[in-house]
Amino acid sequence: MSRVMLYVVYQKYNEAMHGLALSIMELLAIGLGVDRMLYREFFEDAVSVMRTNLYPTCQEPNLSLGTGPHCDSNALTILHQDLVGGLDVFVDNKWQKVRPIPGALVINIGGVFAALSNGIYRSSLHRAVVNSHKERRSSVFFMCPRADKLVKLAEELVPTSEGAQESFRISHGQIYSKLL
Ligand SMILES: O=C(O)CCC(=O)C(=O)O
Ligand SMILES: [Fe+2]
């Protein structure tokens, strides 16, 4: 595939994922009981990042990791994995496999949305492991608010104690600088 073709495919995939992420934002808003359009509008101008991961086979998979344990720090992640398997999520105090399902996408809440929802939604701990017989690929779309956006709780989610609202006002850039 030529570079131009690759770029067009990338752009189209990115646009489709952006649209899907905005629809998921509406569902999350409904779940939280806030204005349905709140997060869709907040993330309309999101600066998203896409990454493709390639995990080669490994002779000693037990001694190695593809992607180490982490919680995504962006707002929402949409992951497509091939059918090899290797994504694990930490639930009930143990690592559990996220079994690949043909045509299915994995949606992960990131740290920014966990903050926006006042911790009602959590960013899950996950990792990717390797194996000795088949290489694996995944492509990941990370939705992030623009770095200068103020990450602020919806009025309905603000704790009522005095001064609490101010303490929740933080820009996405500040969140990143705290994480780095
Ligand atoms: O490749 C995977 O299944 C996981 C990748 C991942 O968690 C990430 O890129 O943040
Ligand atoms: Fe991740």
TrEMBL record:
Transmembrane segments: none annotated. It holds the Pfam family 2OG-FeII_Oxy. Residues 45-145 form the Fe2OG dioxygenase domain. InterPro entries: IPNS-like_FE2OG_OXY, IPNS-like_sf, Iron_ascorbate_oxido_reductase, Oxoglu/Fe-dep_dioxygenase_dom. It comes from the Eukaryota. Signal peptide: none annotated. PANTHER family: 2-OXOGLUTARATE (2OG) AND FE(II)-DEPENDENT OXYGENASE SUPERFAMILY PROTEIN-RELATED. This is Fe2OG dioxygenase domain-containing protein.
